[in-house]
């Protein structure tokens, strides 16, 4: 199977759109020119002393528009921000993107201007996807600003800094809000759709996918601060680190369980089933170790988390690739959605190690790629749902149909007839019971193959003569049964007579002197009837037709059979 054929053209176009979005992020990454220097905080020093030292002997510098990994010192990190001339007056906004969950303070000399964090719900200003500080007009643009990144258990991410006017900030913030809200809305909508499919189809494949999407949305929501501002989920403040690690571990576990069923690894790559399932079991154990609060166990869980996440992601990618190569259609959907996300996750991890500083759009691209993956895999799940429904309809059709004639079998006909009778007595109902004459002799003389052909021919003839709304089924052997709605006794007799003639015209020879004919019994519904009693009365009338000479119809309670002579049948 070739990935680049027309069937997967839509997937390639989606991937191209995602790459284009990434390039747009890259093109929009520019910010106001700033100069920045940083060093670790020393015990006991004051902000004014730090600024004085920076003026005499600058700290190591970095480009604030590029991603900078700050040292995770227990005492924190000082960052001095300067605006080169020409200077403009007015109130400004200092933004720190991807700051992690730690606290950041802004100083003007020895004066604390503000102190805040992504998970701060105090009176300070709150940015969306960033930490912001309002720099009042009273602080001249020529004066350096001092930021302190406080030491914390969760280190700061790879940060960028920008200093903008309020209109420029609001425009940029609005664009990010539209992008992030749309991405998270897509992920949550796809998760809700998957849950609905899981309940309707009773297929846990959709449930595992919904759980994975919710975990991934939580991870990105915590990293970007979206769950704190604008969602204002204050209950998550203080627990973001633990929740993030748990969501990361569980996302791999749910992805493994989803991929096992979705890509049908058992069928296409049975050797990889056990390794993939092992990851699905091991990752929740890390969550348990992390939640114990025991120092050794917590450290072990944190040490193992990222390597196991990377190994698990690569294992799922490999299993999906093998399954796709061996013919799993849905594995292609998994690969198209999972591979770009895995690449972005690896690139974001590399940024936390100080690499790819010139791509500050990668963390935001990871949010957008989550939406892209959600759409691709949801299309795959919809395809799976349609396949399941088609298979179930086909299985039900096979279960309800007689394999030889294609008519309803006895069970299915009885259930359908019961539904008709439960509609009440508003319309008359007639049941016709058919039995082929001399059929045993036909089988004995010409073989069962000839008998099967005769049954197929008779079934086709009866189907052609009756209305589509009439229930026609094979009751067993050479017996057929039909339920006719809106037909009175006289019409039922006329229809049965016509059917006798139609079967006789098939010109199936049982012997040199006998032709294949049919005897028909008719029973009209009464208030006391049910399906069984109707069939029994029609069956008894059919035997009366047999005893009266065959090739005729008899109505239960009717005086005298209606005979179809050979000359009339022709």
TrEMBL record:
The chain crosses the membrane at residues 175-201, 208-228, 240-263, 275-298, 304-325, 332-353, 365-386. Keywords: Membrane, Transmembrane, Transmembrane helix. It comes from the Bacteria. InterPro entries: 7TMR_DISM_rcpt_extracell_dom1, Diguanylate_Cyclase, GGDEF_dom, Nucleotide_cyclase, Rev_trsase/Diguanyl_cyclase. It is an enzyme of class 2 (transferase). The keyword Transmembrane helix applies. Its EC number is 2.7.7.65. Pfam families: 7TMR-DISM_7TM, GGDEF. NCBIfam families: GGDEF. This is diguanylate cyclase.
């Amino acid at each position: 199977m070739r990935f680049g054929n027309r069937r997967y053209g839509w997937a390639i176009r989606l991937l191209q759109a995602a790459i284009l979005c990434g390039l747009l992020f890259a093109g929009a990454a520019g910010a106001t020119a700033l100069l920045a220097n940083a060093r670790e905080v020393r015990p006991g020093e004051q902000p004014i002393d730090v600024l004085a030292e920076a003026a005499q002997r600058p700290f190591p510098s970095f480009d604030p528009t590029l991603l900078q990994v700050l040292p995770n010192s227990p005492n924190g990190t000082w960052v001095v921000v300067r605006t080169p001339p020409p200077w403009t007056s007015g109130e400004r906004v200092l933004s720190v993107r991807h700051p992690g969950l730690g606290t950041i303070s802004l100083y003007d000399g020895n004066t604390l201007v503000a102190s805040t964090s992504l998970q701060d719900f105090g009176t300070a200003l709150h940015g969306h996807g960033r930490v912001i500080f309002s720099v009042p007009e009273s602080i001249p643009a020529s004066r350096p600003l001092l930021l302190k990144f406080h030491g914390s258990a969760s280190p700061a991410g790879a940060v960028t800094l920008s200093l903008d006017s309020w209109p420029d900030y609001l425009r940029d913030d609005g664009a990010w809000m539209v992008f992030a809200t749309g991405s998270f809305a897509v992920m949550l909508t796809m998760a809700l759709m998957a849950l609905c499919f899981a309940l309707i189809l009773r297929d846990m494949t959709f449930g595992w996918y919904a759980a994975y999407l919710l975990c991934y949305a939580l991870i990105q929501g915590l990293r970007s601060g979206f769950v704190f501002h604008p969602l204002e989920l204050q209950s998550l403040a203080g627990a973001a680190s633990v929740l993030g690690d748990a969501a990361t571990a569980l996302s791999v576990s749910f992805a493994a369980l989803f991929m096992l069923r979705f890509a049908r690894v058992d069928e296409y790559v049975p050797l990889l089933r056990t390794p993939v399932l092992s990851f699905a079991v091991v990752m929740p154990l890390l969550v348990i170790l992390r939640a114990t609060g025991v120092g050794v166990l917590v450290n072990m869980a944190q040490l193992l988390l990222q390597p196991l996440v990377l190994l698990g992601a690569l294992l799922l990618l490999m299993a999906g690739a093998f399954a796709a190569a061996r013919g799993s259609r849905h594995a292609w959907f998994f690969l198209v959605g999972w591979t770009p996300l895995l690449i972005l996750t690896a690139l974001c991890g590399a940024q936390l190690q100080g690499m790819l500083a010139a791509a500050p759009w990668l963390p935001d691209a990871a949010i957008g790629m989550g939406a892209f993956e959600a759409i691709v895999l949801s299309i795959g799940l919809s395809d799976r749902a349609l396949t399941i429904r088609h298979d179930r309809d086909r299985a039900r059709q096979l279960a309800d149909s007689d394999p030889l004639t294609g008519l309803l079998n006895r069970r299915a006909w009885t259930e359908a007839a019961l539904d008709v009778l439960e509609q009440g007595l508003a319309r008359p109902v007639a049941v016709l019971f058919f039995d082929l004459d001399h059929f045993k002799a036909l089988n004995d003389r010409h073989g069962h193959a000839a008998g099967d052909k005769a049954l197929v021919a008779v079934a086709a003839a009866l189907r052609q003569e009756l209305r589509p709304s009439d229930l026609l089924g094979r009751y067993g052997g050479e017996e057929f049964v039909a339920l006719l709605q809106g037909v009175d006794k006289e019409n039922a007799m006329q229809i049965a007579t016509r059917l006798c003639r139609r079967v006789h015209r098939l010109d199936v020879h049982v012997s040199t002197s006998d032709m294949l004919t049919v005897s028909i019994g008719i029973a009209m519904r009464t208030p006391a009837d049910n399906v069984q009693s109707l069939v029994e009365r029609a069956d008894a009338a059919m035997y009366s037709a047999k005893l009266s000479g065959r090739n005729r119809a008899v109505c239960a309670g009717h005086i005298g059979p209606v005979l179809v002579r050979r000359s009339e049948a022709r």
